[in-house]
Fold:
Amino acid sequence: MKVAAIQMVSGTQRDDNLRAARILLEQAARSGAELAVLPEYFCMMGHRDTDKLAWREPEGDGVIQRFLADAARSLQIWIVGGTLPMQTTAPDRVRNTTLVFDPAGTCVARYDKIHLFCFDNGQESYHEGRIIEAGHLPVQFDLTARDGHRWRVGLSVCYDLRFPELYRAHARAGADLLLVPSAFTHTTGEAHWEVLLRARAVENLAYVLAPAQGGHHENGRRTWGHSMLVDPWGTVLAQQGEGAGVVTGDLSAEHLRNVRTQLPALAHRVL
Structure:
């Protein structure tokens, strides 16, 4: 199955970002991808954390959700909508939410980011918990490819990557592919992005597909990019540095099965 990681350099205007995302999704579909995954905050990178409040949507309705459903239906591909701000019961909070749409345009899974990024090195400061309400549960969904093979897919977002217990939960649930839509800062991405992605692939004997924000943003941020596909042996199969683009690669059920047979580490777990 061919998959695509969509890399973006999102700005502050939702509609501009949606138009850019549509062009990249069309490119992924033309390449033969059956699954395309957008990065975290694909729909908006605001000037302030509180900007998310103005764009939040109720579950099941909204401009961003309609965009994702229409794109999946018209392009006849699975689309994982990076993240978008979703309403909570609190007026001053949002959930940072991943939604999954099948080729019929139906939302089949929702994951609310569990781990909230906090970083302060004296020059850069981030604290997602000020605005974002954390989710609590790991989420997987099943995707049947055009060849009839069923893939189990585990969802995660950005900072989740630093918490291996989440990915072990996905492995226990039988995940074959782990998704990590992200907006890693340039500072933390340069230091840790690739090594963490490859570690999650190796320790869980699963493919990892990680679409990212990558470049200099209108709001002054710089994100690391380097969207990539990693195989269960930890080999980087495809990646892109900075700038918008589409990273594609093929998942092989046979290769996954062979790696797990040759090194049956998942069967040796004691915890």
User: Anything to note?
Assistant: The helical segments are 14-30, 51-55, 63-75, 164-172, 186-204, 253-262. The CA atoms of residues 23 and 230 lie 24 Å apart.
